[in-house]
Automatic annotation (TrEMBL):
The keyword tRNA processing does not apply. This is ATP-binding cassette, subfamily B. The chain crosses the membrane at residues 21-40, 60-84, 134-155, 161-180, 253-284. Its main location: membrane. One of its GO terms (cellular component) is plasma membrane. Gene3D superfamilies: ABC transporter type 1, transmembrane domain, P-loop containing nucleotide triphosphate hydrolases. It is a multi-pass membrane protein. The lineage of its organism: Bacteria, Bacillati, Actinomycetota, Actinomycetes, Propionibacteriales.
Length: 603
């Protein structure tokens, strides 16, 4: 429950809605409670008229009119409060969703290594839906009911302390009995959520990679796996729901016994003359009103438990540690935008005794790497697949902190430079182009606040992309589909080159696209890349011998260490990895081809 209160605190800007709902709930309870009093009074008047003890028909008509008035007022207040509840819920959803997304944008890369995209999405939906559903239910019906119950207890105390005592006993007993069952209920709920999360995660992956599924003909397997999780959830629900409803039947039986006692007291005491018929009618109505929340308790507890589980999940994500000095943190804190004194001297990039492991295992992926890259140099990293080339670049981008040693850019340790400033210095062309849905214009200008048509065209022309863009019916306004699915591999790459050109960062990282491009497309992309590399310090995660042979220096990695550093000419004769790859390139033997593949090298 504490976490739900925390949620309300998180969205404290909605206080006007909270206040409105409280006032509305009091008004609903007041109008609802007055109705039994009017009916009781009318009963007494009717009994008096029938018994010949006075009373007038006009009083009865006035009392009926009062009932109409109260009923109308109750309807208006119920709907006005319901309206406020709906407004509060939708605003709360917006606030919580924004917070969640904001948090995800602040989390370090490491967080995403252990989570599936679909899981993150399904968790977001579930936690926020359960919280808003609960608060909507609470404000629209349960809160007015709570106030009514409280008032009923006070009124019963006035008329019959016995009755009040019984009512006072009912609620805590019922809540206690419910809480006993709900602990076990929650364990099943978490287990079910795990299944939903895994299924949701896989669902998103499969939808995102439908081509792979189709080409490997794994539709049946994927469907079976997906359904399996839902079947397991159904199995858990059978146990969960069976247990809950058995216990609920028991609870209600206890409750029925208590209400039997209440009614018996009322009937007997009225017959003995302790109450008038009117007061008995009043008490019966009040007791029935008091009974409602108890019978609705199982729905309430169900919704509340879900909300508690949801808010726990929400705060679990919120408790994750942010990436230090994330751009969103800087924007929010209102702190002055940090600046950094970049040093113009060489080297532009340096690794000094850098070691790194991903943390899940103690094994180091990089060991004692020392390397310096000068301004304008083109350096190719070559090594076995999984040898740590991308990891080196990850450290340079500060996506992970080095376990030991120092990575420097422009003479500054990346540890001390805010990631925003560091990443502005580095342009990246990813192996898989990594575009977003939207137009070509939006993709090329990604991350740039304002861009003119002329700048856009220049970047596209230099990236060798203008020709194909112009041939498209909508030109720069063409929608490219999710991750650019409507474009060819080469076209996507050229857009990502144009994007990097527009970013115009002095340091460039190229993760070379390999087998995805045919020779013609490769040539088209290469022309753009040559243009992009002009005047920039470039690290190439190399996958083509043709590229490697044109760089200024090659760095070969073996078992996480730098093996050799030298020009292509120098390394061609040392007998090291590069020389070996060169020797293999003409060979058509299976073993040699396998060796090239181990280095992720295409000719
Ligand atoms: N996010 C991660 N979490 C845990 N281990 C990782 C992660 N990323 C990479 N690794 C491991 O680190 C090692 C180096 O991976 P890296 O991606 O740097 O290799 P690479 O040389 O770029 O390979 P390739 O040429 O195939 O892309 C591999 O053994 C890999 O399994």
């Amino acid at each position: 429950m504490r976490s739900i209160i925390r949620i309300l605190g998180t969205a404290r800007q909605l206080w006007r809605f909270y206040l409105g709902i409280i006032v509305g709930a009091v008004a609903i309870a007041a109008t609802a409670l007055l109705i039994p009093f009017v009916i009781a009074r009318a009963t007494d008047v009717v009994v008096s008229i029938v018994g010949g003890n006075g009373g007038s028909i006009s009083t009865l008509v006035w009392l009926a009119a009062a009932l109409l008035g109260l009923s109308l007022a109750n309807s208006v207040m119920t709907n006005a409060t319901g309206y406020l509840g709906d407004q509060m819920a939708v605003r709360l959803r917006a606030i919580l969703s924004r917070r969640y997304f904001d948090k995800l944008l602040r989390l370090p890369q490491r967080y995403y290594d252990n989570e599936l995209t679909g899981t993150i999405i399904s968790r977001l939906n579930r936690s926020i839906t359960s919280i808003t559903d609960f608060l909507q239910m609470f404000s629209n019906s349960f809160f007015p009911m709570l106030i009514t119950v409280f008032a009923i207890l006070v009124i019963s105390l006035v008329y019959s302390p016995w009755l009040a005592v019984l009512l006072i006993v009912i609620y805590p007993t019922f809540v206690w009995l419910t809480a006993l069952t709900s602990k076990k209920w929650l364990v099943w709920e978490h287990a079910k959520n795990d299944h939903y999360d895994i299924a949701g995660g896989r669902f998103a992956e499969v939808v995102g990679q439908m081509r792979v599924v189709k080409s490997f003909v794994t539709e049946r397997g994927e469907l079976a796996r997906f359904s399996g999780h839902f079947d397991d959830a159904v199995g858990l629900t059978v146990k969960q729901s069976g247990y809950w409803h058995r216990m609920d039947t028991l609870r209600r039986a206890v409750l029925d016994v208590v209400f039997f006692a209440i009614y018996a007291i009322l009937f007997v005491q009225t017959a003995q003359g302790a109450f008038t018929v009117g007061v008995m009618v009043l008490m019966i109505q009040l007791v029935n009103m008091a009974k409602q929340p108890v019978t609705g308790m199982s729905y309430l507890v169900d919704t509340t438990q879900r909300a508690i589980a949801g808010s726990d999940e929400f705060f679990k994500v919120m408790a994750e540690l942010d990436e230090p000095n994330n751009p969103l943190y800087l924007a929010e804190s209102g702190a002055e935008q940090p600046t950094v004194e970049w040093c113009d001297d060489n080297p532009v990039i340096s690794f000094d005794g850098v070691s790194f492991g991903y943390g899940d295992t103690t094994e180091l992926v990089l060991k004692d790497i020392s390397l310096a890259i000068d301004k304008g140099e083109r350096v190719a990293f070559v090594g076995e697949s999984g040898g740590g080339k991308t990891t080196l670049v990850n450290l340079l981008m500060k996506l992970y902190p080095a376990t030991a040693g120092t990575v420097e850019v422009h003479g500054q340790s990346v540890r001390d430079v805010p990631s925003e400033l560091l990443r502005r210095e580095v342009g990246v062309v990813f192996q898989d182009a990594s575009l977003f849905s939207g137009t070509i214009r939006e993709n090329i200008a990604y991350g740039i606040k304002s861009v003119t048509d002329e700048q856009l065209e220049t970047a596209a022309r230099r990236a060798n992309a203008l020709g194909f863009i112009k041939r498209l019916k909508d030109g720069f306004d063409t929608e490219i589909g999710e991750r650019g699915i409507k474009l060819s591999g080469g076209q996507k790459q050229r857009l990502s080159v144009a994007r990097a050109l527009l970013k115009d960062a002095p340091i460039l990282i190229l993760d070379e696209a390999t087998s995805s491009l045919d020779t013609k497309a490769e040539r088209a992309v290469q022309a753009g890349l040559d243009e992009l590399m002009e005047g920039r310090t470039t690290i190439i995660i190399a996958h083509r011998l043709s590229t490697i042979s044109t760089v200024d220096r090659i760095v070969t990695l073996r078992e996480g260490r730098v093996d050799e550093v030298g020009t292509p000419e120098e390394l061609a004769t040392t007998g090291g990895i590069y020389a070996e790859l060169l020797a293999l390139q003409g060979s058509s033997s299976r073993a040699d081809k396998a060796k090239l593949a181990r280095y992720d090298i295409v000719r």
